[in-house]
Specification:
Elements lengths: L2 H38 E3 L5 E3 L8 H15 L9 E7 L4 E7 L9 H4 L3 H11 L7 E12 L2 E13 H6 L10 H4 L2 E4 L30
Parallel strand pairs: 4-5
Antiparallel strand pairs: 1-2, 3-4, 5-6, 6-7
Helix pairs in contact: 2-4
């Protein structure tokens, strides 16, 4: 065999070996990547991937089932909207996010209506009794606001609660005005002022008065 043919066969053999090695590497990488994805996602009955959280984290199907149950139980609000608009779950930090509609428009409601947070208590009670695993729950209350001349449903109040505190709460006695104190955080859209019940507000400092003098009425 001539030197040129021998060189050609050597080169062909090397190319075949390199191609085979490349195929093996791609296969191994693809398999490892697939296993990594499988370890962080789960395919639910609806065919949608679900991001895993801690052990026992809810699947999309379970979250959807909770949402359907809340919609059925809590119905619609005073404005004709579904009380619970959406329910979602963040695998980390193991948190449910529930968006619900408030009864009144914050721009036109009376002071008595402004402090009415009973809808939040109803939603929180039902979510806690829903049976899903989570460490935190964030409730986002929405209402119609005028934004640049257009009315849109906007989040006006957010409150985050820890499961540990909710498990210890006496639900038979829990009142709406206790929610700000029970929450880890309770924030309201700044332009709306304070929507919290008056009992939950910090006490005001009594103004100082002038000292009285004997024989004089101040």
């Amino acid at each position: 065999m001539s030197g040129d043919k021998k060189t050609m066969w050597v080169q062909a053999t090397v190319l075949i070996l390199l191609a085979g090695l490349g195929y093996v590497m791609v296969t191994v990488y693809a398999r490892g990547w697939g296993q990594a994805v499988a370890s962080t996602e789960e395919s639910g009955p609806d065919g949608q991937a679900v991001a895993h959280g801690p052990p026992g984290a809810p699947t999309r199907a379970q979250v959807k089932q909770l949402h359907d149950g809340l919609r059925k139980k809590l119905g619609t609000n005073a404005r004709g909207l579904s009380r619970v608009a959406s329910v979602d779950y963040d695998g980390w930090p193991d948190r449910l996010i529930v968006v619900f509609a408030l009864d009144h428009n914050p721009m036109t409601m009376t002071p008595a209506q402004a402090v009415e947070v009973k809808p939040m208590l109803d939603v929180l009670r039902s979510v806690h009794a829903g049976g899903l695993h989570w460490r935190w729950v964030m409730l986002c209350g929405t209402a119609p606001l005028d934004t640049n001349g257009a009315i849109s449903e906007t989040t006006v109040v957010r409150a985050q609660f820890a499961r540990e505190k909710l498990d210890k709460a006496d639900w038979s006695r829990l009142q709406p005005d206790a929610l700000p104190g029970l929450a880890e955080s309770f924030t309201v859209e700044p332009e709306l002022g304070d929507l919290r019940p008056a009992a939950a507000k910090p006490p005001e400092t009594k103004p100082a008065t002038r000292a009285t003098q004997p024989g004089r009425l101040n």
